[in-house]
Amino acid sequence: MSIVHYKLVPHDGGWAYALNGAFSETFPTHDAALKAARRVAKEQRVPGESRYIEYQTPDGQWHTEHVLGIDRPEADVTE
Q1: CB atoms within 10 A of CB 75
Q2: Cβ distance 24 to 41 under 8 Å?
Q3: Range 62-68 average pLDDT
Q4: What does the CA dihedral 58, 62, 66, 70 come to, rounded to 10 degrees?
Q5: Which residue from 21, 26, 68, 72 lies 20 to 30 Å from 37 (Cα-Cα)?
Q6: pLDDT for 3-62, tens place per residue?
Q7: Which helix (H) or strand (E) holds 76?
Q8: What pTM was computed for the model?
Q9: Distances from the Cα of 53 to the Cαs of 7, 16, 27, 36, 71, in angstroms?
Q10: What strand order describes the sheet that includes 22-23?
Q11: Would you kindly state where each structural domain of the chain is located, as residue ranges?
Protein backbone atom coordinates (compact mmCIF):
# COMPACT_ATOMS: atom_id res chain seq x y z
CA MET A 1 0.00 0.00 0.00
CA SER A 2 1.28 3.45 -0.84
CA ILE A 3 1.37 6.43 1.50
CA VAL A 4 0.39 9.96 0.44
CA HIS A 5 1.78 12.89 2.45
CA TYR A 6 0.10 16.26 1.96
CA LYS A 7 2.17 19.16 3.24
CA LEU A 8 0.95 22.64 4.23
CA VAL A 9 2.97 25.42 2.61
CA PRO A 10 2.77 29.20 2.24
CA HIS A 11 1.41 29.92 -1.25
CA ASP A 12 0.33 33.07 -3.14
CA GLY A 13 -0.12 35.18 -0.03
CA GLY A 14 -1.98 32.47 1.89
CA TRP A 15 -1.66 28.75 2.53
CA ALA A 16 -2.06 25.63 0.39
CA TYR A 17 -1.51 21.93 0.68
CA ALA A 18 0.97 20.36 -1.71
CA LEU A 19 1.65 16.88 -3.05
CA ASN A 20 4.55 16.01 -5.33
CA GLY A 21 5.04 19.62 -6.41
CA ALA A 22 1.35 20.28 -7.15
CA PHE A 23 -0.47 22.89 -5.07
CA SER A 24 -4.09 23.15 -4.03
CA GLU A 25 -5.99 26.39 -4.30
CA THR A 26 -4.81 29.10 -1.92
CA PHE A 27 -6.57 29.41 1.43
CA PRO A 28 -6.52 32.63 3.46
CA THR A 29 -5.40 30.98 6.71
CA HIS A 30 -3.29 28.06 7.87
CA ASP A 31 -6.31 26.59 9.66
CA ALA A 32 -8.46 26.70 6.52
CA ALA A 33 -5.75 24.95 4.50
CA LEU A 34 -5.27 22.36 7.24
CA LYS A 35 -8.99 21.61 7.36
CA ALA A 36 -9.13 21.20 3.56
CA ALA A 37 -6.01 19.01 3.50
CA ARG A 38 -7.41 16.74 6.20
CA ARG A 39 -10.66 16.40 4.23
CA VAL A 40 -8.75 15.48 1.06
CA ALA A 41 -6.56 12.98 2.94
CA LYS A 42 -9.69 11.34 4.36
CA GLU A 43 -11.25 11.15 0.88
CA GLN A 44 -8.13 9.37 -0.44
CA ARG A 45 -9.04 6.35 1.68
CA VAL A 46 -12.60 5.97 0.33
CA PRO A 47 -12.97 2.93 -1.93
CA GLY A 48 -14.17 3.51 -5.45
CA GLU A 49 -14.75 1.56 -8.64
CA SER A 50 -12.10 -0.61 -10.27
CA ARG A 51 -11.01 0.91 -13.58
CA TYR A 52 -8.23 1.44 -16.04
CA ILE A 53 -5.98 4.46 -15.62
CA GLU A 54 -3.42 6.00 -17.95
CA TYR A 55 -0.39 7.99 -16.89
CA GLN A 56 2.85 9.31 -18.34
CA THR A 57 6.20 8.72 -16.67
CA PRO A 58 9.00 11.31 -16.64
CA ASP A 59 10.68 9.56 -19.59
CA GLY A 60 7.62 10.29 -21.76
CA GLN A 61 6.22 6.74 -21.82
CA TRP A 62 2.47 6.21 -21.43
CA HIS A 63 1.20 3.32 -19.31
CA THR A 64 -2.22 1.76 -18.82
CA GLU A 65 -3.03 -0.14 -15.64
CA HIS A 66 -6.10 -1.71 -14.12
CA VAL A 67 -6.50 -0.54 -10.53
CA LEU A 68 -8.81 -1.99 -7.93
CA GLY A 69 -11.23 0.39 -6.26
CA ILE A 70 -10.29 -1.05 -2.88
CA ASP A 71 -6.56 -0.38 -3.38
CA ARG A 72 -6.47 3.03 -1.67
CA PRO A 73 -3.39 4.74 -0.23
CA GLU A 74 -2.85 5.78 3.36
CA ALA A 75 -2.89 9.58 3.52
CA ASP A 76 -1.79 12.13 6.09
CA VAL A 77 -1.08 15.83 6.48
CA THR A 78 2.13 17.40 7.77
CA GLU A 79 2.34 21.01 8.82
Answers
A1: 19
A2: no
A3: 92
A4: 30
A5: 68
A6: 899 999 999 999 999 998 899 999 999 999 999 999 999 998 888 889 898 999 889 999
A7: strand 74-78
A8: 0.71
A9: 25, 27, 30, 26, 13
A10: 22-23, 14-19, 3-11, 74-78
A11: 3-78
